[in-house]
Design goal:
By secondary structure, the chain is of the alpha/beta class. Helices cover about 50% and strands about 15% of the residues. The chain has a six-stranded mixed β-sheet with strand order 1-2-3-4-6-9, sandwiched between helices. A three-stranded mixed β-sheet has the order 5-7-8. It binds acetoacetyl-coenzyme A. Belongs to the enoyl-CoA hydratase/isomerase family.
Amino acid sequence: MAEESFVQLRVEDQTAILSLNRPKQLNALNRNVLSELGMQIAMLSGRKDIRTVILRGEGKAFAAGADIAEMQELSAQQAEQFARMGQRVFTALESLAQPTIALVHGFALGGGMELSMACDVRIAAEGTQFGQPEVQLGVVPGFGGSQRLPRIVGAGRAMHLLLSGERIDAQTALAYGLVTEVVPGAELLDAGLRYASVLHKLGPVALQYVKRAVYDGAELDLARGQALEANLFGLTFATKDQREGMRAFLEKRAAQFRGE
Ligand code: CAA
């Protein structure tokens, strides 16, 4: 019998839905899960028929973090390699040309919260608990949390969450700007597909360049960031989508973007 995969892929309305599938361990991220996730991401990269990517978890949690049972006996060197592995996979996720949406429910703790933060947008189910509890295990985040969290919610809030290890609920996450929307659990997938359908009406090239402007720009000083923005702005004018978008506005009709 074929082994069941830890990351399942299905495609619906041009959206790839990646589901973490290790529900008995609350989708704890071990090497196998990370490696399968990395392979799925690599396969989605460059697929023009996939316009958005949704990441979600099977069972009662999005993901309760890196696998503590697998980590506990790691040497310092092995732990660093494990962190680098997770970071590589999450960076590949962030680097996808397509917009990515994390649908978060139950728990998004440690590596689970870090995974959600490697997506472009997060939508949470009511009752979801977010947190970076690594300090409670005597360690620090290893999958990018200490870097992405302050970029998303600001240094003050990030420092509070990272130092205390305290969990916040979905409403607080909304107030922090960590999630864009909180919906009843039963409506989470629909909310994600609805968000995706809004993006599908837009030009994929412009969306890809927005991602580059934001992520690459975050590494630059203001002058260089603005130079990057001007460059990307210019590149959009080399697309048919720019002609179509502006013409459609002036002709008072909906634009038909083709990603060209
Ligand atoms: N690693 C391994 N196993 C985990 C896990 C994790 N991160 N989180 C949950 N599990 C397992 C539990 O051990 C349990 O397994 P058994 O049934 O075999 O005992 C199963 O999943 C169900 O979990 P609980 O019985 O604990 O469920 P609960 O509803 O009582 O509690 C919870 C849920 C509050 C999320 C609790 O499971 C918990 O605190 N999990 C750990 C959260 C955590 O500390 N995450 C950070 C990990 S470190 C990290 O992520 C480092 C990094 O940045 C790379």
